[in-house]
Amino acid sequence: MEFRQMLEATLSKLMEKDSKILVLDADLSRPNGTYPLYKKFPDRCFNVGIAEQNMIGIASGLAAYGYKPIVVTFTPFATRRVCDQIAISVAYAKNNVKIIGTDPGITAELNGGTHMSMEDVGVIRSIPTMTIYDAVDDVQLGQALTQIMEYDGPMYIRMPRKKSQQVFDENYQFKLFKSDIIKTGKDVTIIATGTMVKEALNAAIELEKENIFVEVISANTIKPLDEETILKSVKKTNAVITCENHNIVGGLYSAVCELLCKTYPLKVKAIGVNDEFGQVGLYNDLLKYYNMTSKDIVKAVKEY
Amino acid sequence: MFASHHQLDNLTLFLDYNKLQLDDYVKNINNLEDVVKKWESFGFNTISINGHDFQEIDIAITNAKSTKNKPTMIVLNTIKGKGVKFIEEATTGNHSMPVTKENLELALKELGE
After folding, report:
1. ipTM of the assembly?
2. CB atoms within 10 A of CB B25
3. Cis ω for the linkage preceding A104 (within 30 of 0)
4. Is A234 helix (H, G, I), strand (E, B) or coil?
5. Which segments of B1-113 are extended strands (E)?
6. Contact A50 B21 (CB under 8 A)
7. Is residue B113 over pLDDT 80?
8. Which of B23, B26, B29 minimises the CB distance to A30?
9. A252 to chain B nearest CA, in Å?
């Protein structure tokens, strides 16, 4: 299933149960998949136009009156364009607003540099009380959204829009603010988020053939990090590589380094966008361009 | 506001006003009402023309150049996909249209290219 189909299906279910949940869009309801909700819940969906700052303001006001607004737009317009509104009207004012940024990092593909956000996690992570979840696949997203809408606090949700790669099956059980060890190993710990979890897993499977045993952790939430799970693994392997579909400045790499610097200092290698802007390209081509393929991860593990 | 406050008469803006956005017609999302009056209220010499008519555009630019102490806004009333029937008729569906070989040929033929 596409991520956006899962978004619509899950929101539809949740909105039927909880009349406080409202959806706000900024002229992207069709590409983001929320469009059918306007027919199902005509009084609870609002398309504010291309006016994202106003959208965050409206959502904050609705949250102040006890509603549970969820705003949906492309990643750069959900974060860097509305940074002040998130900091002041959402976080500082303690308003329970959920913000979905679709097409994170290179998943923006042909929409190119203007729509390809490499800094969204860094921007949001530095705002107190904000939390960040990066969706791995559609199965996880469905479960995560249900728990996220029950969580009383502001959150930024990163999710691709289109076809989902499968990492988790129907037996999977997501726990908000907990990471998942999706492959156990003793030699190197790979901590990955979002679509990079699949690349990390593929790399670990390749490396196993050469008797290199990698532990793959799907971090799930970049803020807060599941420190306990990460530290336990790192103390076992004494080698860490992070994998993220984001600038390595300010994202998962930074978050993991901040944790390890103060608790268990050691070298950390990074797979991700190396402080560059985005560009037009297909996902697999951009993975290669930014050296983020499973082959790049294999190389990083061997060179650690 | 800045441009009119500083009387930037060397500044000319164009608004490609096709009345559409991705999800719907602009008027169905946030109605802009009278854009000419809005720009006039910001202190702009505002000219509203047929955006597909080169002669009207030429006259408007001449007007803009000769206007003193005010910036100019030229509102180009346009139709998205002008001249190609299936694109015009797609209305909100023409924000993003994959181009097949067949509809490329059809469009070029209609445009007389």
Report:
1. 0.84
2. 13
3. no
4. helix
5. 12-17, 45-50, 72-77
6. yes
7. no
8. B23
9. 33
